Amino acid sequence: xxxxxxxxxxxxxxxxxxxxxxxxxxxxxxxxxxxxxxxxxxxxxxxxxxxxxxxxxxxxxxxxxxxxxxxxxxxxxxxxxxxxxxxxxxxxxxxxxxxxxxxxxxxxxxxxxxxxxxxxxxxxxxxxxxxxxxxxxxxxxxxxxxxxxxxxxxxxxxxxxxxxxxxxxxxxxxxxxxxxxxxxxxxxxxxxxxxxxxxxxxxxxxxxxxxxxxxxxxxxxxxxxxxxxxxxxxxxxxxxxxxxxxxxxxxxxxxxxxxxxxxxxxxxxxxxxxxxxxxxxxxxxxxxxxxxxxxxxxxxxxxxxxxxxxxxxxxxxxxxxxxxxxxxxxxxxxxxxxxxxxxxxxxxxxxx
Amino acid sequence: xxxxxxxxxxxxxxxxxxxxxxxxxxxxxxxxxxxxxxxxxxxxxxxxxxxxxxxxxxxxxxxxxxxxxxxxxxxxxxxxxxxxxxxxxxxxxxxxxxxxxxxxxxxxxxxxxxxxxxxxxxxxxxxxxxxxxxxxxxxxxxxxxxxxxxxxxxxxxxxxx
Lengths: 352, 161
Hints:
Chain B: Keywords: DNA-binding, Sigma factor, Transcription, Transcription regulation. The complex is a heterodimer of chains A (352) and B (161). Chain A is mainly α and 352 residues long.
């Protein structure tokens, strides 16, 4: 048996408290405590209360209880939705039976189940149904419609380029007018303007009042001079020789001026003058100019769009389906887009 | 899916879809338009849609068309912003269905849609999630919240009556 010393006494103390010391060891421990009374207090402090089975009573039911009270709403909904396990469902139903105060709440939850009103029906079901013949027709017509639309768009596109190519018409006008005006070159002293309203075709719409320069007005200015009268007659001759049909192409206003006498100014606003001269150098050299009231590109676009939309709409009618060509302005991107849509195909192009 | 199956689908689902959309947006003409649009889209894709999944396809199409419409018209009304005390000023109700109808109006769009799909069509959380592009957990949460709101509304009305 080992001897108990101040260096190993804790070991013996614990065994003593556990009751595992032999009788000889216990005698030896008591002898040790007599010789070391200061350690006796330490042993007393180490003594712990020992619980017996009878001293503690555990409520096993409370440990098994599900927190129905704390989470009652969730359990009600889970029961309603069928989210509870079978055991929990039984436990919840039992809980409700025992706690009448919770039953009313649960009954209100039961009422939240929605029931469809079967009297509400879709009356036009027959219109939704299809027949096989229509399937073939629709597929055929839609494909034809799409193909025709694409062909039409390409055609219109090529027309657009043709329009651009026709700008040479202006040069033809210049040439014709130049040939005619050369005969009246003798009237170089006074600048003349000719009102072209009378030589434009009915197709032309608006000529703004400030752009009109009448021969009569000029006649008044030159009434004192007999030479001027002959000059005016020459101008009228020129007007008659100019072919109205040729001049009417894309032009709303033609002003003939004497380029050799730049000191006399027309009543044309300065900014417009500048624009005209930069737009058409050939006419400006001749002393002539023209200007459309609608910007050229815008006019072409709007005409092209109108033709294209009409064509596409008609194709849609023929196909019996919704084929659309729309120009839309998107305020968020501040851009205008051209949308082409039909069944199965559609494309969009930002045009401005 | 063939032609016959398509026409059967019309018979089987047009009414249910119409009720679902009508209860959601409360506009008969628009509900009818949405149903028509949905079947039009189905017809265009008739060859690519599996007949067994046609119901889900139709409801998904109709639901998204409806949500787009609601967003356009900015008719969104959030139930959370409604004060329960407002219920006391509601009109008189003759039966539970009217009370529920009124309560349904006060749900948010998503809550209303998921609970209608759940109760009218008996869809599972998974199926509703597929239709509405939500997760199953989100669907469950929306349904639980909707039930709680409906219960509170019914409870408040009953207590007044």
